Structures are given as C-alpha cells and as structure tokens.
Amino acid sequence: MIEKDTLLFLGTSLGLLILIHLILQFALPQIVKLFYKPSSSRVKRSIGKFTQSLKWGFFFAVFPIIEPYFSPPNLLYIGRQRFFVVLSIITLTWIIIEFSNVIRHIFLEKFTYDKEDNLRERRVITQVAFIRKLFIIGVVVIAFAAILMNFESARKIGTGLLTSAGILGIIIGFAAQKSIANLLAGFQIAFTQPIRIDDVVVVEGEWGKIEEINLTYVVVQIWDQRRLVLPINYFIEKPFQNWTRTTAAIWGTVFIYVDPTVSVGEIKTKLKEILEATPLWDKKVQVLQVTDWTEKTIELRCLMSAKDSPTAFDLRCLVREELLLYLQKTQPNSLPKSRVLMEKATGKQED
C-alpha cells in the first residue's frame, strides 16, 4: 500500500507541475515581448518553441529546490535521482538549441535575399547556418557525455576505451575519412564561399539554385523543382558554374540564322526597339553582330543584359519571338532558304 504521505507528495508534485506550466504559459510570452517584439513569422515561431522549452526547464530547475520542504522524510528526493538528472540535462540541451535558433532568426531578420542585390545577405546567411549546425552538434555531444557520466558502467566503458585510444583512433580515422573530408570541405565552403544559399549554379549539366548547405551535403533546387543532392566536397574537387558569384547580372545571347540578303541595319534598329520597350532589359548591354557566314545563311548574334538569369531567359525568348515576327512581316524573303539552279539542256536530238 502506498502511504498517505507519498500520495500527498505525488499529488502536490503533479499540482505544482500544472501550476508552473499554467503560469509560464501566460507569463513567458509577455516577458519575452518586454525585451523584443518579433516582426517576422520565423522569429515568432522560434520564440514560441523557445518559451515551450523554458516551461519545462523552469520546472526541472525549481522542483529540486522546493522539493525538500514538502517531500516525506522516508522518500528519496526525486530531484536527486538519476532519471531526473538525465531529464534535466535533456531539457537544458533543448533550451540551448531553441535559444540558438531564436538568436539566429533575430540576427538574420535584417538579412533577406528576396531582393535584387543580395550578395551580402546570402554570404551571412550561409555562414550563420553552418556555424549553428556545428554549435548544435557540439551541444548534443556534450549533453550525451554528461548523461553517460551519471552511469557507473558508462564511466568504466569510457576508461577502457581511453586505454586503447591509439588503435581506436586509427580505426575511426580510416572509417570516417570521407565524413571528415566532407566536414572540412564544409568549413572551407562556409568561409571561402564558392557557393552560398540562393546562388544560381550549373552542376552535372543541370541549372538550379543552392537551396541547402548542410554539414556533409548540398541540395540544389533544379529549375523544374527537382532536387539534386551532392556531397559537399563536390564543390571543392570538381568544376562547376556559379552565375551569381559576384553579382546576379548576366548577359544573354540569341542566335538568328537568315538569308545573306537580309538588311542587318534594320534588324539592329528593331532589336533596340524591342529592348527599350521591355522592363526585362537592364539597359546596360545591347549588341547585334554578324558572327558567321556559310554558303546558305549568315549567323546573327544578339547580345543583351538582364539583372539575373531567370530574367535573361525570359528576355531571350521575347527577342526571338519579336524578331521572328518582324522578319515574317517585313522581310519574309530573308528567312533561310535553299536555292536550286536549273539549266535547260542544249544538246541536239539525233534521228
């Protein structure tokens, strides 16, 4: 049978848990708002998760302090039991991780890459994301070690491992060679930054944007919404194209093949009209040149500039359509054609 004092203690503990939870449910959000008023949805969500972790954190911090005042004398203190200590370590780890998430979103609130010139923002976002991942790994490792220290058997295992650390280190070094190489490549990418979040790249023959940079791999969002996942050391060891390394501006080309009788000057004038009439052109580069001449056609290259690669693609398509329509209406004979020369036979017919 459970004694009345024990039942009273358990009931009081449960009531205390509910009371602390209810108080923190309403008090913590108000306290946080006194110091900071979130403006973005990401910051609001991160603060909500942080306050949720604090509710349990305060309970595990306050409970061992007040427990001796109402715990039965013949009952061991729960706050000193191993499972309670482990729960406290887990909760503290949870609080630290959520707090780092709040700090990250508050710091990055002024850095958004939803604008035309976002080179600085993408650089900072990439570095902060990588540093936070390393920080979380360090916190989890320390918490796991602290939990193991509460178990005598785990401490003995740790002592045995330390005596064979030389052999174990060699084995782990060979087994984790690629993982360590990826981790070091992640450090190099985070600070030298051959790629950044939202960079436009061409890898493995695919055009896309850098969506995620993790500790060991990179996710590229392909233009048709597919995802290309590559090991992070790919961007250290293999060549690739980065179209937004220093700026997002890019030049686009359109090749037109027409008959040699075409009026190149009129097409130049028409190209200028097309570009000046569209907001896709950034008004920096506008060139039309004859770049090749074969026995059947001449090659015209139209060169134009745009603020970024998606805009350049749309601009090139527009120029092709407008020039084709112009040639069909004004110079239909200048479209590519094949010529056949037929000569009448002059030989005499024999009887």
Automatic annotation (TrEMBL):
UniProt keyword terms in alphabetical order: Membrane, Transmembrane, Transmembrane helix
Q: Which SUPFAM superfamilies does UniProt cross-reference here?
A: Mechanosensitive channel protein MscS (YggB), transmembrane region, Sm-like ribonucleoproteins
Is Membrane tagged as a keyword? yes
Q: Name one GO molecular function term.
A: mechanosensitive monoatomic ion channel activity
The membrane topology term of the UniProt record is: Multi-pass membrane protein
Q: Which residues form a coiled coil?
A: none
- Pfam families, from UniProt? MS_channel_2nd
Q: Which domain of life is it from?
A: Bacteria
Residues of the Mechanosensitive ion channel MscS domain: 179-245
Q: Which family does it belong to?
A: Belongs to the MscS (TC 1.A.23) family.
* Official protein name in the record: Potassium efflux system KefA protein
Source organism: Cyclobacterium amurskyense
Q: What is the lineage of its organism?
A: Bacteria, Pseudomonadati, Bacteroidota, Cytophagia, Cytophagales
